[in-house]
TrEMBL record:
Record-given protein name: Cholesterol 24-hydroxylase
Entry EC number(s): 1.14.14.25
GO CC annotation, single: endoplasmic reticulum membrane
First-level EC class: oxidoreductase
Annotated source species: Cyprinus carpio carpio
Amino acid sequence: MISEWVLYVMFYLLSAVFSAFLAYCLYVHHIHQKYDHIPGPPRDSFLLGHTPTFSRAAKSDNLIQDLFLEWADKYGPVYRLNSFHYIVIEVHCPEATKTMLMSPKYLKDPFVYKRLFNLFGKRFLGTGLVTAADHDVWYRQRRIMDPAFSSTYLRSLMGTFNEMSERLMDHLEEIADTKTPAVMHDLVNCVTLDVICKVAFGVDLNFLKQTDSPFQNAVELCLRGMVLDLRDPFFALFPKNWKTVQQIKDAAELLRKTGEKWIQKRKTAIENGEDVPKDILTQILKTAEEEKVNSAKDHEQMLDNFVTFFIAGQETTANQLSFAIMELGRHPEIYKRAKAEVDEILGTKRDISYEDLGKFTYLSQVLKETLRLYPTAPGTNRWLHEDMVINGLKIPGGCSVAFSSYVSQRMDMYFKDPLKFDPERFDVNAPKPYYCYYPFALGPRTCLGQVFSQVMKHTPHKHNCTSLSPSEFLDIQNMQANVCILLDV
């Protein structure tokens, strides 16, 4: 009797599972019918869609963004990608880019950005400035952060930028004296992290002198974890990966605990009437107090933004500097022109003032062209909640729209000879790119730290241009391999 009852239960369970699977397959078929009029590469399978192709690309030595560029050349500036029932429309059409990125009504895709709330189950970027999909939640935080990143406030921090650049050059001189090869990307990583710690939080850790910093290792582990998690949602399920997953979770916890300690220490100092550094953290806490932002939820968001600041600010800035150094080494004529401009503007001055930054016309062109070829944050997503016609194609609402600055900035329909490094594209008299060049995103969600990063990028280049010769640049090896990690996200 019992065995018969068990058989009935198993039969009904299997029937329910089969029915659910069949219903899901019918739903996936419906999605295919809804979007298959949009061109795109053939799916690898009915259910998995293009997921196997992404997995193979991730395991190869090639950049997945180059695959997107190849598809854009083949299928046009609007094409479809499938993964189970999830649809992504890749868009490299300037008009649609302008429409969707410039308007707050198109929210960030929650499927993509909510995955960064946690990192393998440990709170990571939470609902910080990058991941907040709700416009009101984002705007409230942005209002608190904006004063700390204004050009007026950053003007007072130039001394620190110069000090850290001098520290890098002193370290390079020590390396040169011993004729030891230098991995420039590692060194630039250290100095940008030092700048952020000192300028933003008043902490001087001097990573150039540390051989194995737990904090720096945590930042690098979390960056790696983001890539692993976004590429493979099943990564944490395999026992062989559990040790790596735990290390990444520990790294995320270390970053948040460090933020907790630094923020609380500053709050206590302010409450006790002590002299505190006039840095970004002080300005943020001051604005938060004025806005009466002091609940437990607000505190967690402040930690979210602490982590976001290091993850989104340090590596991206270091990558752009590294790529710029690489291209200056490849093009001695560009290097000589940049050096001549620096010599003319600064002469024998050792430090750069904030006013000097606006005079570096050609150096700015070099940095802009670097961002065109090597955008440090190569894409963003928006959720299309309504039907829209893009490039003559009707796109039904209810899908994700992906914009890749890496792809659009390398398409020959927008840039002549796009793989050539040519700063003249950004000459004041050259035609301006029309919504196909957006290394800092566009619209209300444009990068908060844009001014901060440009100050930080100009300052080390003053020292690089005046201290290194083209032959020394050309001794830098394997730079490209070292600085491509974020282009694979």
